[in-house]
Amino acid sequence: MADETLDPPPDAAPSTPPPPATPAALLRPRREAFEHGLLPIPKLIFPEGTLTQTLAQLKEKLAAAAGPGGRVGAAALAEALQIPQEQAALALGTLAAVLPAEDPALGDGTRDAAGVDIRDVLLFLYIQSYKRLVPRSAHKDSPAVADVWPSTSAFDGYLSALSPIQLVRSNSRRFMPSQADEEIHQLSYLQKHMANIVTLLADSVEGEGDDSLVLTMESFEHLGFLVQFSEGTSLSQAATFFANSDPDMPAAPVPAAQVLDWMSQNIASSLEYSAERSAAKESNQQTVSDIDVTMAEANTSHSRNSTPSSNPAYYRNVTFVEGFSKTSVVKHASDVKGNSIKVLNCHDSVIYILAPLKYATVYGCSDATVVLGAVGKVVKVEHCERVHIIAAAKRICIANCRECIFYLGVNHQPLVLGDNHKLQVAPFNTCYPQLPDHLMQVGVDPSVNKWDQPFVLGVIDPHDSLSHPAGVSDVKAESASCLDPDLFTNFLIPSWFGDERQEPTSCNPFPLPEIYGAFQIKKRSALEDIQKTIRELQLDENRKREFATALHAQFKDWLYGYDRINDKIHDFPVSPKSSLCCELGT
């Protein structure tokens, strides 16, 4: 009876209007390009008034320097933009990480790669003019939070507005842009600039007016760097002027004006639908197909054997872990929907993401440990405080964090930018049985680890108006220091499925640097000496029990008095009592 639905009387008026119908094909912005593809390098960002003209001139320069297939390498890009080659290589590597499909010729965008398609480079440079959406209400610092997020920098008035502690204590999370807000903002940006973007990709032909610019099907497909259809249909298949083209016969180019009209209509339809959804939300019209994933929905699958929610909001291939406090959360591969995860506003918790992914974001967390198993593209950690990040990934970007430690297995230099304080980096320090397979799946090479080679950019992020105050000159961000080897410890991941416990020192796929390995051997030797002394104690059963009880009590006093309780609890895969009793033979 409880599951039955009671129909309202025929004369009863509906309390609220029905939600808008979802269009058959909905054009969405590719969030990866906007979330992981922006770099705060001033010479990559052109003034909006001269953006189109500057990129048109750059297109000519790059075309003249391009190699076979119209590809551009780091040296050519550095020359054209007048930037150091290291920054050009970083730009191409970042571009490679956010392309919609793997490019075998490009690889990871390193200096030795074959180069990047000019059209992708131009689109990448164009969106560097994008400004992120700011909070709906400006945050006001209060004395209650000043002691935990002190202003120690000239930029703190701008950059510290998103302190994780402030988010918790002031309940200002509700003022932060939602996923839907950001998507609308990105679509609006594309709507405004689509005419220039299409022109940039177009080729000139003989003709007058609109007929002088055309787009080939190949160039049209490059717009997939910026937009995609929600159900996965390719742009050329969705567009009537290229749909069902014979793969053996090259499709005829179409006028750029026709492409612009089609793109503009689809973007307008998506914006109209999103606006209707937002209006419905403001009228408390939450439905099962809401394009935002609420905290309640994100919390529906905590158990290790649960499956992801069937909520259609997940069609964007993003899983959310949001708003957890004083708990542990485990996500295995079967719990993760899609190829991207976001850990948002979690505090005093341990988050285990033991799955192969392409993208991962950790945002606004404090006093937490986050384990990211294998990330094949980019990890981004932003606005975190006193957090331990354990990550195996191709790349990682660290921005606006304080007193955090990063235990890394990364194939590229960690990118450090923004207003950071007291960051430390250390080698990767954990393992779980599926990790080697997950690394192989996403293409992370454990034989290459650049954890101790941070690439440091500026404090000010031009894409964020909160951190880009007028008249303030940029300075180099504070880098990260290497963790003292004597403080380095392994992190043991508990076994939930009865798998045999693996010691991180022996199964860690990333080889430890010699000095860290030596300290691990020293610690292990000391532990073995203590264990030997305990085993050799000549005590009767009563004295053994008294000794065990006293040892347990001292251990608990130490454990609960330590300010990293969560980390230490999870260093023990079995209870302290059972392990000590085994040593004592009780």
UniProtKB/TrEMBL annotation:
Domain C-CAP/cofactor C-like: 312-444
Regions of compositional bias (Pro residues) in chain numbering: 7-22
Keywords from the named record: Cytoplasm, Cytoskeleton
InterPro entries found in the cross-reference section: C-CAP_CF_C-like, CAP/MinC_C, CAP_C_sf, CARP_motif, TBCC1, Tubulin-bd_cofactor_C_dom
UniProt cross-references to SMART domains, sorted A to Z: CARP (SM00673)
Subcellular compartments: Cytoplasm, Cytoskeleton, Microtubule organizing center, Centrosome; Cytoplasm, Cytoskeleton, Spindle pole
Region (Disordered): 1-22
One cellular-component annotation, GO: spindle pole
UniProt similarity note: Belongs to the TBCC family.
PANTHER family registered for this protein in UniProt: TBCC DOMAIN-CONTAINING PROTEIN 1
Protein name: TBCC domain-containing protein 1
Species, as recorded: Panicum miliaceum
Source organism phylogeny: Eukaryota, Viridiplantae, Streptophyta, Embryophyta, Tracheophyta
